[in-house]
Write a structure and sequence with these properties.
Layout: E1 4-7, E2 12-16, H1 22-39, H2 44-60, H3 62-73, H4 77-101, H5 109-114, E3 119-126, E4 129-133, H6 141-152, E5 156-160, H7 166-178, E6 186-188, H8 196-201, E7 205-211, H9 214-227, E8 230-234, E9 239-243, H10 249-261, E10 271-277, H11 278-293, H12 313-328, E11 332-335, E12 352-355, E13 372-378, H13 381-389, E14 393-394, E15 398-400, H14 404-413, E16 420-421, E17 436-437, E18 440-441, H15 446-451, E19 454-461
């Protein structure tokens, strides 16, 4: 795939970029290793000042970088502004809290004595150069939620961003330089996917983090495993959205629409499978379908647009294949199911609701990365849990109920990295984020995220 900005609203190639050759990659690796040797010795106050400066710059750049993101991957402009603002919040959160999150841990006095030591502590040290392989759907946020904790922990970063968001990738590398970080602390590598393994296997790279598809995750995990290097993977998701009889149906519907079409439906943590108890299924389906059909699809630069284009032509084709396969198998289209007739240019697809999904349809197990929702009718709580877990993914989940018994059952039995009760899944700096099963492993954000790329060092000291 060429490294280029292609406007998904028009299909027009805006700008192309040359890939970094072997000599350029070597310079970046050498610079990163050199930077880490000095940067790891800095204190939290110095790191926090740098990250706060980067946050200030990003805050001032909000409108410009939001427009760049919208041009590159098609999210509505208002959503792009919100993404940039969320990154500022995360940077400030880690700048203010990293020292406490990485404070030495001291065992109980009785355990210290038991170990034969006068003093024992667990001390967090940075791992080194971390390679970040990042996706296009949240081109700023996905990177910052890695970079902010990694830099505050004393690591340095190499960014291999998706090939269709090169201007956002270049901006990120420049942002940290402008903030005053030492040269080499955070660098963007304009390389193709074929060059990733070589970078990952380089002895100067200590670890990797990837957010993306399952095949990409497998490739990175395989190479890293062969080199015995730490990885964190956040892969696909097909999150259930379970609605029980005690739910506030009006609220559940409003939130369901946002949860399905946010970011034009291109989010790993988007609600995708809507599992509704038979007692409230008809009401929910009618309201949800009407709300999805009423969304305004159009130019993402227009403030009134609810849903913009899909990011790539292939992405739309893949989505169409899933919908067409379901329809051939007997699924019912309640709304949408086609390209908007009035939008001839660009990679648009109408918000779509499908019912009557059966296990022989691809869409039953595969992830829909676009504004397509599948509806399931279930008879009781047991069937709801079984249906929710009937997926190879386990990123997050949403449950709507006012029953404490229901909540306890879902918390106990849902196979997911998150359970959001009477609300939609969203990432926040203070909350650990990640999945189970084929949605990956490890955690981003919160104290768990900053510790992923640390060497937890036991310091045992005898008396005298």
């Amino acid at each position: 795939m060429p490294i280029a900005t292609v406007n998904p609203a028009t299909g027009e190639t805006v700008r192309t970029f040359d890939t970094l050759g072997p000599d350029g990659i070597e310079r970046c690796l050498a610079d990163a290793a050199h930077a880490f040797d000095a940067y790891r010795r800095t204190g939290f106050a110095e790191r926090a000042a740098l990250l706060q400066r980067a946050a200030d710059l990003l805050e001032g750049d909000n409108e410009d970088i939001a427009r760049t993101m919208t041009i590159e991957m098609g999210k509505p402009l208002a959503a792009a502004r919100a993404e940039a603002a969320k990154c500022v919040k995360a940077m400030r959160w880690y700048a203010e809290r990293a020292e406490g999150l990485l404070a030495d841990e001291v065992p109980a006095e009785s355990d210290v004595r038991d170990s034969g030591a006068a003093a024992v502590r667990a001390h967090y040290r940075p791992l080194g150069v971390v390679l970040a392989v990042m996706p296009w759907n949240f081109p700023l946020w996905q990177v910052v939620r890695f970079a902010a904790p990694a830099l505050m922990a004393g690591n340095v970063g190499l960014l291999k961003h998706a090939s269709n968001v090169p201007q956002t990738a270049i901006y990120l590398g420049d942002l940290f330089e402008r903030a005053g970080y030492p040269h080499g602390c955070f660098q963007t590598l304009l390389i193709g996917s074929d060059a990733v393994e070589g970078v990952l296997r380089d002895r100067r790279v200590a670890a990797a983090t990837l957010t993306g598809s399952e095949p990409a995750g497998r490739a990175v995990a395989s190479a890293a495993g062969d080199e015995v290097k730490k990885t964190v993977l956040e892969l696909g998701g097909s999150d259930p959205y379970v609605v029980m009889p005690s739910a506030d149906i009006a609220r559940a519907v409003r939130t369901a629409i946002t949860a399905r079409v946010q970011n034009n439906g291109q989010s790993c943590i988007a609600a995708k499978r809507f599992i509704v108890h038979a007692d409230v299924y008809d009401e929910f389906a009618e309201r949800f379908t009407a709300g999805m059909a009423a969304l305004n699809v159009g130019d993402p630069m227009v403030e009134s647009t609810d849903v913009g284009p899909l990011a790539t032509e292939k992405g739309r084709a893949d989505l169409e294949e899933l919908v067409d396969d379901a329809v051939r198998g007997g699924a019912e289209i309640l709304c949408g199911g086609r390209r908007p007739p009035a939008l001839e240019k660009g990679w648009y697809y109408e918000p779509t609701v499908l019912a009557g999904i059966t296990p022989d349809m691809r869409i039953d197990l595969e992830e829909t990365f676009g504004p397509v929702a599948t509806l399931y009718r279930v008879a009781d709580l047991d069937e709801a849990v079984a249906r929710a877990n009937h997926t190879p993914f386990g990123l997050s989940s949403n449950v709507w109920t006012r029953s404490d018994e229901d909540i306890a059952r879902f918390v106990r039995d849902l196979q997911a990295g998150g359970i959001y009760v009477n609300g939609m899944t969203a990432s926040h700096p203070a909350l650990p984020f990640g999945g189970v099963k084929r949605s990956g492993y490890g955690r981003e954000l919160s104290g768990h995220g900053i510790r992923e790329f640390c060497n937890v060092t036991t310091v045992w000291q005898a008396a005298g």
